[in-house]
Amino acid sequence: MTVANELGGRVALVTGAGRNIGRAIALALAAAGAAVVINGRRDRQALDAVAAEITAMGGQALPVPADVADAAAVDGLLTAAIARFGRLDILINNAAVRPEKALEAMTLADWHGVLGVILDGAFLTVRAALGHLRASGAGAIVNIGGVSGHTGARGRAHVVTAKAGLVGLTRALAHELAGDGITANCVVPGLIATERDANLLPQHHRVSRTLLGRHGSAEDIAAAVCFLCGPQARYITGQTLHVNGGVYLG
């Protein structure tokens, strides 16, 4: 449960925050009182729209376009965040690309393009944010995984590998950063209703069914993320939290 203003005075950075799950996470963190840095790679209009929503609810937001797979761009992203808000307490690694392609047709560039955003992006943002998260005294990192990283999926060898890698990174971070008062956890969405082209519906969405008989919402994921960032979750680290309506029982 998220308590009103429980994140007051905190600053959060959400990557991939222009739409869908990232947008919902940014709005939920803002509703809990955090100032939010909204990152995306290309669509500045979408970032500005999320920032406007936060401002309209009385919150503070800073849209910063940057490619998280680019080390220099990530450094610039953190510089902009600190210049505006002076601190960083929460890092949400949500940026991802999820193309489908048969392994035999996949090029090395295809492979690196996905792992670059999901895994390199998480590594680079954590590395750039680390000093600020240490200074927070109650830093929180939440990586957004994917159910296919646990079940596997056809045509997504690069996505499955990258999302599974986030779980390993999360556990490594939990060990390395616990002494700094930083928690690291992974939230794994499964079968979430998001805005996408109907022709791009993932194969595992077409064939899988949840125990609850419905798809989840982006807000379901945001609620779990907010909890892990809040004061009630300070004894939780290194964990993988599946939010999937029972489509996968981990």
Topology:
Elements: E1 11-14, H1 20-31, E2 35-40, H2 44-56, E3 61-65, H3 71-85, E4 90-93, H4 108-136, E5 140-144, H5 148-151, H6 157-177, E6 183-189, H7 203-207, H8 218-229, E7 240-243
Parallel strand pairs: 1-2, 1-4, 2-3, 4-5, 5-6, 6-7
Helix pairs in contact: 1-8, 3-4, 4-6
Quick recap:
The chain is of the alpha/beta class and 250 residues long. It has helices at 20-31, 44-56, 71-85, 108-136, 148-151, 157-177, 203-207, 218-229, and strands at 11-14, 35-40, 61-65, 90-93, 140-144, 183-189, 240-243.
Describe this structure in words.
The protein has 250 residues and is of the alpha/beta class. It has one domain: NAD(P)-binding Rossmann-like Domain (Rossmann fold). It is 44% helix and 14% strand. It contains eight helices and seven strands. The chain has helices spanning 20-31, 44-56, 71-85, 108-136, 148-151, 157-177, 203-207, 218-229; strands spanning 11-14, 35-40, 61-65, 90-93, 140-144, 183-189, 240-243. It has a seven-stranded parallel beta sheet, sandwiched between helices. The radius of gyration is 17 Å and the shape is globular. It starts with 10 loop residues before the first strand and ends in a 7-residue tail after the last strand. The mean pLDDT is 93.
